[in-house]
């Protein structure tokens, strides 16, 4: 890697699962604004639903999600009552105005729910929303939670995709991140979901964790590949102890530096591609016949709060504390604090705390950023066709960056392209088009 590119490895930039990013949301987008956006949905709109379960029975030190540990189920039961109330309220506004194409259960640990609560949630969604018969249903699974009853409940509500957190199989690494999970346990859950008809299995791996080495990363990837997952996600550990205090449990002396992180990510990616997977965007891989790989080949892969996806629904409705929704008009985020969220929805109100309405400039910059993150390129002609004068201004900006940007972006025919050896820094390239970044005060994880 060129020295001027290598020097940028430690830069702190957003992950760009949205644009503008969440730190720039504001309270001017409130429940009343969000209600008007919901009421503006049209009958033929296709919708995605995201349910955020903000509890875990064990807290992993590496985690940067909005979640909390509980050893008792009562707080979860109380939350679920409120989640049902939110489903009822939002469903009443949406019913007859859109059809649900995709459902995603995330967290936290949605699989810590009792089987009867999983079944109840599945029924509530289908009772309150017009869910298409062929809708996908994805679930983030903690293998340590799983038993036969939970697996059967997930099958009963129509799970089509399972995403299992692995992170790393090395016992020393697992102990350092408070996530002890054997390969045999993971394999048993993969086998069990497949036996119940799940057509797509994803495994999440991390690099940049404490005590990881090239050798340990290679072993973990080799073990993961024996499970023949349909997809793999290879994320860089985001060390943000100023944002998530439990990450202070990880001694920073145990963490690899930026050069070692890059070497780990490149080694893992090479091993996965050599096994026959296609590389998609910055950090995802899929078998060539997987729907995500097919979507990427035809230019339809997208990026949202769940990472890379083939979900092309314009509207994504987030349910649960901290969940973020995306509408044509902008983004809206629910109240983060579980107690305040419960109070709002129990009173029959939307739980929206903040968001941002999108200008044409936001839409144009967001389009560029998503194309860069998904395809490492964007079309100059399409930019102008879509966004007119705003597109022309951004085209001039891209041209200047291609001339003076230190090799991060170049013009190739009608396309602006991130060169192959700069692709690990695509987040840094995307940040060049982020007008909010310099004015904001948020701190972000390193680029690689």
Largest sheet: 9 strands, mixed
- Which regions are unreliable across 5 or more consecutive residues at pLDDT < 50? none
Distance between the termini: 13 Å
Number of strands: 19
Q: Which class of secondary structure composition applies to the elements? A: alpha/beta
Percent of residues in β-strands: 15-25%
Helical element count?
A: 14
Radius of gyration: 21 Å
Q: Could you tell me the mean pLDDT?
A: 93
Explained architecture:
By secondary structure, this protein is α/β, with parallel strands linked by helices. The chain is 38% helix and 21% strand. The protein is built from 14 helices and 19 strands. It has helices spanning 3-6, 31-39, 74-94, 115-128, 148-156, 171-176, 183-195, 214-226, 258-274, 291-297, 338-346, 360-375, 380-404, 426-431, and strands spanning 45-53, 55-56, 68-69, 98-107, 131-141, 161-167, 200-207, 231-236, 278-280, 284-286, 302-304, 307-309, 315-319, 324-326, 330-334, 352-357, 377-379, 410-412, 415-417. The chain has a nine-stranded mixed sheet, sandwiched between helices. A three-stranded antiparallel sheet has the order 14-15-16, with no helix packed on it. Strands 17-19-18 form a three-stranded antiparallel sheet. Helix 3 (74-94) packs parallel to helix 4 (115-128) and helix 3 crosses helix 11. The mean pLDDT is 93.
């Amino acid at each position: 890697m060129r020295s001027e590119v290598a020097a940028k490895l430690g830069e702190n930039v957003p992950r760009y699962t949205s644009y503008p990013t969440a730190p720039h949301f504001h309270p001017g987008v409130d429940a009343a604004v969000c209600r008007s956006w919901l009421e503006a949905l049209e009958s033929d709109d296709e919708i995605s639903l995201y349910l955020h379960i903000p509890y875990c029975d064990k807290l992993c030190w590496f985690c940067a999600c909005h979640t909390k540990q509980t050893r008792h189920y009562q707080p979860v039961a109380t939350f679920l009552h409120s989640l049902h109330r939110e489903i009822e309220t939002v469903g009443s506004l949406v019913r007859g105005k859109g059809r649900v194409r995709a459902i995603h259960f995330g967290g936290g640990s949605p699989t810590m729910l009792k089987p009867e609560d999983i079944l109840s949630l599945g029924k509530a969604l289908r009772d309150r929303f017009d869910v298409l018969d062929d809708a996908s249903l994805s679930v983030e699974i903690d293998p340590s939670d799983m038993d036969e009853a939970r697996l059967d409940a997930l099958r009963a509500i129509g799970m089509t995709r399972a995403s299992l957190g692995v992170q790393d199989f090395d016992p020393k690494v697992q102990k350092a991140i408070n996530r002890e999970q054997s390969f045999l346990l993971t394999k048993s859950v993969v086998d069990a979901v497949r036996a119940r008809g799940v057509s797509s299995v994803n495994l999440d791996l991390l690099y940049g964790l404490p005590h990881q080495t090239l050798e340990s990363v290679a072993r973990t990837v080799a073990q993961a590949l024996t499970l023949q997952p349909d997809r793999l996600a290879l994320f860089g550990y985001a060390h943000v102890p100023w944002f998530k205090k439990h990450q202070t449990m990880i001694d920073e002396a145990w963490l690899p530096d930026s050069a070692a992180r890059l070497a780990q990510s490149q080694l893992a990616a090479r091993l996965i591609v050599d096994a026959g997977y296609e590389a998609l965007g910055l950090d995802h891989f899929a078998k060539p016949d997987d729907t995500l790989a097919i979507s990427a080949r035809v230019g339809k892969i997208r990026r949202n709060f769940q990472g890379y996806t083939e979900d092309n629904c314009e509207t994504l409705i987030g349910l649960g504390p901290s969940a973020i929704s995306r509408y044509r008009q902008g983004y809206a985020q629910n109240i983060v604090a579980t107690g305040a969220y419960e109070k709002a929805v129990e009173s029959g109100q939307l739980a929206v705390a903040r968001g941002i309405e999108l200008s044409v400039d936001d839409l144009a910059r967001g389009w560029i950023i998503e194309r860069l993150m998904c395809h490492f390129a964007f079309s100059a002609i399409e930019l102008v066709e879509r966004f007119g004068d705003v597109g022309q201004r951004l085209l001039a900006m891209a041209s200047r960056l291609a001339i003076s940007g230190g090799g991060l972006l170049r013009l190739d025919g009608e396309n602006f392209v991130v060169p192959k050896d700069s692709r690990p820094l695509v987040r840094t390239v995307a940040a060049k088009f982020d007008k909010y970044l310099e004015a904001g005060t948020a701190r972000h994880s390193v680029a690689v």
